[in-house]
Design brief:
CATH superfamily: Ribokinase
Structural class: alpha/beta
Order of helices and strands: EEEHEHEEEEHEHEHEHHEEEHHHEE
Enzyme class: transferase
Keywords: ATP-binding, Kinase, Nucleotide-binding, Transferase
Largest sheet: 12 strands, mixed
Number of strands: 16
CATH architecture: 3-Layer(aba) Sandwich
Number of domains: 1
Radius of gyration: 19 Å
EC number: 2.7.1.56
Pfam family, one: PfkB
Distance between the termini: 22 Å
CATH class: Alpha Beta
CATH topology: UDP-N-acetylmuramoyl-L-alanine:D-glutamate ligase
Family: Belongs to the carbohydrate kinase PfkB family.
């Protein structure tokens, strides 16, 4: 879409997946159902973030652990989008994730299979690869679940290591891995959970916007630079410094919700690269997410369409209740 950025982003996907997306409108549990279409995409949260960034025109390197038995779909994606492949190949096949898309109801059901068990030698090789990437990458994205063989503190240790080296770090994970990061002494620059993931990681419900804001601001006080809490159709809350805004998307025809959060991360990183303020960053991140849900697979529409989405996003200053449109 544009010339590549001179300061590349590196994304880490320790537990990638081949996403089998099946469209079966009106499918019923426990019955024989007819599907209308299917496609197989190389995926995993960090892979998706990298694909969206490449579509936007940024230079991006994708790394992680990749099963050598079925790496072809990933390699084809990297070639097609001009992404640098820095994955460590491991014996076996990368897991498959099944996405059942009901276009009529605009709902997606995910079935995530377990990944390949990571061995100590593979993890050592991966950490060496990250050390190499630190030589010429300024921004790192740690995204997705952890496979068997990787302890919950893995991301927390990487965050501390990367930030000590002066790198900008974004994190998008859940479960025990997110809990470990949020309990650590060093937090990522950008944290993007959805509301349920944040509640689970903190071990308490966040029943009001004031409680979500308080939780986000506590993370900022402890060293994060931005917290983005996505809440589906309600939009997302973005908190940074003394500012907090809510971005509300327009209604669009949803093809699949797979990758919507990954697109939001990519939008925030592109906004960071362009030095955008919080309101404009929220608007762009939401436009990226809208672009993702109107397509199957990790693909952004042309910039003209993204700009049109951005113009329809309503951004509200949470503190003052002042809306900013377009």
């Amino acid at each position: 879409m544009t010339a590549a950025s001179p300061a590349p982003v590196a994304t880490l996907t320790v537990n990638p997946a081949l996403d089998l997306t099946v469209r079966a409108d009106g499918w019923r549990r426990g019955e024989v159902n007819s599907g209308q279409a299917f496609q197989l995409d190389a995926g995993g949260k960090g892979v998706n973030v990298a694909a969206f960034l490449a579509d936007w025109g940024m230079a991006v390197t994708a790394t992680g652990l990749l099963g050598e038995d079925n790496a072809q779909a990933f390699e084809a994606l990297f070639r097609a989008k001009g992404m640098r492949d820095a994955f460590v190949r491991v014996p076996g096949a990368t897991r498959v994730g099944i996405k059942l898309v009901d276009g009529a109801a605009q709902q997606t059901t995910d079935i995530n299979l377990p990944g390949l068990a990571a061995t100590a030698p593979a993890l050592q090789q991966l950490e060496g690869r990250l050390d190499d990437l630190m030589a010429d990458h300024t921004t790192f994205v740690l995204a997705g679940s952890l496979p068997p063989g990787v302890d919950a503190g893995f991301y927390a240790r990487l965050v501390a290591r990367l930030r000590a080296a002066g790198r900008f770090v974004a994190l998008d994970t859940s479960g025990a891995a997110l809990s470990a990061v949020l309990a650590a002494n060093v937090l990522p620059d950008v944290i993007k959970p959805n509301l349920q993931e944040l509640e689970a990681a903190l071990g308490r419900p966040l029943d009001s916007e004031a409680q979500v804001l308080a939780a986000a601001r506590d993370l900022l006080r402890r060293g994060a630079h931005m917290v983005a809490v996505s809440q589906g159709e309600r939009g997302a809350l973005f908190v940074s410094g003394g500012e907090a805004v809510r971005a509300r998307p327009p209604r669009v025809k949803v093809q699949s919700t797979v990758g919507a959060g990954d697109a939001m991360v990519a939008g925030l990183l592109s906004a960071h690269a362009d030095g955008l303020g919080l309101a404009d960053a929220a608007r762009r991140a939401t436009a990226f997410s809208l672009g993702a849900v109107t397509r199957l697979g990790a693909h952004l529409p042309p910039r003209t369409e993204l700009d049109a989405f951005a113009a329809q996003v309503t951004v509200e200053d949470v503190r003052e209740g002042v809306e900013q449109r377009g």
